[in-house]
UniProtKB/TrEMBL annotation:
<dbReference type="InterPro" id="IPR001173">
    <property type="entry name" value="Glyco_trans_2-like"/>
</dbReference>
<dbReference type="Pfam" id="PF22181">
    <property type="entry name" value="TarS_linker"/>
</dbReference>
<dbReference type="InterPro" id="IPR029044">
    <property type="entry name" value="Nucleotide-diphossugar_trans"/>
</dbReference>
<dbReference type="Pfam" id="PF00535">
    <property type="entry name" value="Glycos_transf_2"/>
</dbReference>
<feature type="domain" description="Glycosyltransferase 2-like">
    <location>
        <begin position="13"/>
        <end position="132"/>
    </location>
</feature>
<protein>
    <submittedName>
        <fullName>Glycosyltransferase</fullName>
    </submittedName>
</protein>
<dbReference type="InterPro" id="IPR054028">
    <property type="entry name" value="TarS/TarP_linker"/>
</dbReference>
<feature type="domain" description="TarS/TarP linker">
    <location>
        <begin position="230"/>
        <end position="323"/>
    </location>
</feature>
């Protein structure tokens, strides 16, 4: 839905519940006041006793045009203040912000632009955490439109989003009241069920989620994630979702989120910390949820450890073992990295911390740009060591990140490989495998092991060397040369073209090239047709990724002499030469008229 034509219309109503948060109000309110949209700020004071109410009234007196304060008796949760804020809102959109958090300066401007461009009912803006964990999976890239069934947006059930107010009013979407936690889950689930268009702004830090240093916020309280209370609470949003979404793939996709992040999450670290009686109570509550909502479609969408849990809810000891496996750190160390022909041999040590056994180890190569593409290489074990032989010819073009996978009791745990390694390990030399350049490397940020197939982020080493040049008919420069890549001869079909590139403007002219046996090549570039300027010569190859270009190295004695000729009242001159420092083939091209020649003589 596009913006209205009314210049006085409010774009966004920012609703802020506030309870005893005076120390954070200045930062929060200032971050909203600087937003470059037509806005109103509705702050609902929920019975504050620390001076927050007085500070809010001061803001309202100084910003009468956009700050409105509503005072309530303490309600004990954020649900009622947010609902009151919705009733007072007049904007086309509503955004919810907690008083201890703050917005990026361009947050609302970017989200409103996204919403107006796409007619969005919900716009997710990237959330970043400061001492608190922020959701990440749905913010990998910005998107004009995402579908619930094909995305991870439903993983984020907080209310820190932009909502179209008309949708909230039409469907009477409100927060749960009288709840310590979970009121926003009810609201967000209901909103997702009615949203026709959902958009994501992922290229800007929109919302800053802040942990209070004194640990006084509701979500930082020890009882805020009591497992039994959480499992009881989550029933209502699941039932709400099921009333709107019929059985089928979409419902199974949404239920997957609830089982993975709400139900089976209670069988992890909190389960280990509980006593035997408490563990039985937690398992019983999870089993009750499974009996009502766990379907074959949910099962096939879950990871290995949650599938194991679903089948072990009557076996507390096994649930404990699974929790220990999940919580154990994958200890791994790279001890060797070398080529054996076209096989990359990776050796190391891997185990689950605190657990003396496993059922197998494998090295997994996962495509960085296609999460569904992976190669699993079983490793041979000898004592605590492993060895995997990777056939790199099985890898498609792209970046492949290496992980170690340790399996125990049907659960597979992963860890990136390479950051922890013996001090004498260096990256193996690049290798030409068939027509592909294969370049193992350690990432700059974390030192993890990856393989670049095709030269996407790592420069392909190669040498193109001039053997001789000579002039031919049509003012063509006959060029004979030889090329090698990673110390090997590339296949003839990899040699693509000869390229002249003008040094100042970046303008390019390409010429055909003929590849000959033994890594030699020949070209007949029409150098006389080049525009005036200084042109540098390259040989371009296709090595499985972006075009790889190599400057053509030259010695002065292999370069043909300058040539001049007249044509159409012009004097043309071309001077091929080897550059002074690095000895690379270039050419200076000039065109002069009789008048310009006379001026030079008389100068």
């Amino acid at each position: 839905m596009p913006a209205t034509g009314n210049d006085d219309a409010v774009d966004v109503s920012v609703v802020i519940p506030a309870h005893n948060c005076r120390d954070y109000l200045d930062r929060c309110l200032t971050s909203v006041l600087v937003q470059r949209v037509k806005k109103e700020i509705v702050v609902v004071d929920d019975g504050s006793t620390d001076g927050s109410a007085e500070l809010l009234d001061l803001y309202a007196s100084y910003h009468k045009d956009c700050v409105r304060v509503v005072h309530l008796e303490g309600s004990g949760g954020a649900g009622r203040p947010r609902n009151v804020g919705i009733e007072h809102a007049t904007g086309r959109y509503v955004f919810f912000c907690d008083a201890d958090d703050y917005l990026g300066p361009e947050a609302l401007e970017r989200m409103v632009a996204m919403g107006d461009r796409n007619g969005s009912d919900i716009v997710l803006g990237k959330i970043v955490g400061h001492g608190r964990r922020a959701p990440m999976s749905m913010f990998q890239r910005s998107a004009d439109r995402v579908a619930l069934a094909d995305s991870t947006v439903y993983n984020s059930l907080s209310c820190f989003k932009l909502f179209r107010r008309d949708m909230l009013q039409r469907h009477r979407i409100r927060f749960g009241e009288g709840m310590l936690v979970g009121e926003d889950i009810i609201f967000s689930v209901h909103a997702y069920c009615h949203a026709r268009v959902i958009s994501v702004v992922a290229d800007y830090d929109c919302y800053h989620l802040v942990a209070r240093p004194d640990g006084s916020s509701i979500m930082q309280q020890p009882g805020s994630r009591d497992p039994i209370a959480w499992l009881t609470m989550i029933r209502e949003p699941i039932r709400l979702m099921a009333r709107h979404v019929p059985p089928g793939p979409l419902r199974d996709h949404l239920l997957r989120r609830h089982f993975r992040l709400d139900a089976f999450a209670q069988l992890g670290s909190v389960f280990l910390e509980s006593d035997d009686i408490r563990r039985k109570d937690i398992a019983r509550e999870v089993a009750a949820l499974c009996e009502e909502w766990y379907t074959p479609g949910v099962h096939e969408r879950l990871g290995s450890i949650d599938r194991q849990r679903a089948g072990a809810l009557d076996d507390i000891d096994r649930l404990v073992r699974l929790a220990r496996i999940e919580s154990a750190t994958v200890r791994r160390r790279l001890t060797g990295l070398r080529w054996d022909g076209d096989l990359l041999v990776v050796t190391g040590a891997a185990r689950l911390d605190g657990i003396s056994r496993d059922d197998g180890v494998a090295v997994i190569l996962r495509s960085r740009y296609d999460p569904h593409a992976e190669l699993v290489v079983p490793a041979q074990r000898k004592g605590g060591e492993f060895a995997a032989r990777i056939d790199v010819s099985a890898l498609d073009s792209g970046i492949w990140d290496l992980r170690i996978a340790v399996e125990l009791e049907g659960v597979v745990r992963h860890g990136r490989l390479g950051a922890e390694r013996d001090g004498d390990i260096t990256r193996p030399a690049p290798r030409l495998v068939g027509e592909m350049a294969v370049l193992p490397y350690f990432t700059r940020d974390n030192g993890n092991l990856s393989i670049d197939v095709g030269g996407h982020v790592v420069d392909v080493p190669g040498v193109a060397r001039l053997r001789r040049t000579r002039w031919s008919l049509g003012h063509r420069l006959l060029v004979d040369g030889e090329v090698s890549v990673a110390g090997a001869t590339p296949p003839a079909e990899a040699v693509r073209q000869f390229v002249w590139r003008e040094r100042r403007t970046g303008r390019e002219r390409t010429e055909p090239v003929t590849s000959l046996p033994g890594g030699t090549f020949t070209a007949r570039p029409a150098i006389g047709r080049l525009a005036p300027g200084t042109w540098d010569a390259y040989l371009e190859l296709d090595l499985g990724g972006p075009p790889a270009r190599f400057r053509i190295e030259a010695e002065e004695e292999a370069v043909a002499p300058p040539r001049r000729w007249r044509g159409a009242a012009l004097l043309r001159s071309v001077r091929p030469y080897a550059t002074a420092r690095k000895g690379r083939l270039s050419a200076v091209v000039r065109r002069m008229t009789a008048r310009s020649i006379a001026r030079r003589i008389l100068r």
